[in-house]
Amino acid sequence: MIQTVNKLLCTIKVCPSAMYKVLSAIYCSKGITKHAGHITVLQTIDETGSRNVPVQTNKNSSVLDPPTDVSDTSIHPFIRPSFNFAAYVNKSETLQFLVKQGVDLHKLEKRKGIPEFILGLDVEKDMKDHIKFLAEIGVKPEDFGEIITKNPLIFKEDIGDLEVRVNYLESKQFQPMQITRIVSKNPFWLMLSTRRIDRRLGYFQKTFALTGSEIRLLTTKQPRVITFNLEHIRLNTFNIKEEMGFKPEEMKQLLLRKPKLWMISHGNLNSRFDFVHRHMQISHEDILSFPEILLSRDYRLKQRHGFLTFLGKAQYNPRKELYISLKTLVEGSDEEFVLDVAKSSMECYNNYLKTL
């Protein structure tokens, strides 16, 4: 009877809450209770009118009782198990070795697959030669921890392969100090084969017409831009050239001055340029003289420019009187900006911000 009524209610599309009330009334009127040993089996209906998987509850238990097994995912199915190195540090020679190098274990334990990889390493067989390698290429001991924290998978690489990748840079006339900086600032560099690195350097050299010394300067200044997502680099290159209107030679200047512009999001770069160039009326020439303006935080740029406009002092043309440099506009604390640049008071500035 119950199944017949249920099917009928579903057929005529009765809302789930009404359906539940009808079925509950029938169960109660019939005194129906299903038992499976000491377990009461309940059936629930979801918002689509279909039956869920039966839910089992202990007849003698209370919802206030603590769970018998806190690892049971049926109790908290949306909580992922976490890994904690703390339980292993006192017993693991590997973890103790990493701590001595200054590695941040807390960051490593959050990364998928890394804790298991680290605990499987042997200090003598898998780690000491890599530390020795880093020291031989000029990395300071106090920098070991940061490098390993960023790229613990360096221990997965064969020492011979690492040496080949350093030898490649030497063959391209990178100086020892430059190589040290590249590895320190971009630990993932050593994970890439010489063939991939060669293609990346070739791309930048050809696209921006860089000389040998210029490609070495770019690589040393911002090693991450060389190994950054290539599609992202191409998109920002197109954006800077076609949408912003910078000429090839101007793009080259921007890249060598502020390579980070090629690493920020397309949307942020576009909106920032739009505000600086079209709203503030800053020319391409002036942006080239201070490209850091395109890396300034949006809210700081808009608040400070707005305040200067309110005071009638938003004058950024260096060829005119009462000139305010773009550098002083975005650098320093709010107090320094208000007192030294805007020549106003913090009270006036705070009152202005309240109007936004």
Please give a structural write-up:
With 356 residues, the protein is mainly α. Helix content is 57%, strand content 3%. A hairpin with a 2-residue loop joins strand 1 and strand 2. The relative contact order is 0.04.
Chart the SSEs and their pairings:
Layout: H1 2-11, H2 16-30, E1 35-36, E2 39-42, E3 55-58, H3 86-89, H4 93-100, H5 105-108, H6 114-119, H7 123-136, H8 141-150, H9 159-171, H10 176-185, H11 194-207, H12 212-221, H13 223-227, H14 230-243, H15 248-257, H16 266-279, H17 284-289, H18 298-311, H19 326-330, H20 334-341, H21 346-354
Antiparallel strand pairs: 1-2, 2-3
Gist of the model:
Helices cover 57% and strands 3% of the residues. The protein has 21 helices and three strands. The chain has helices at residues 2-11, 16-30, 86-89, 93-100, 105-108, 114-119, 123-136, 141-150, 159-171, 176-185, 194-207, 212-221, 223-227, 230-243, 248-257, 266-279, 284-289, 298-311, 326-330, 334-341, 346-354, and strands spanning 35-36, 39-42, 55-58.
List its salient traits:
single chain, about 350 residues, mainly alpha, three-stranded antiparallel beta sheet, 21 helices, 3 strands, about 55% helix, about 5% strand
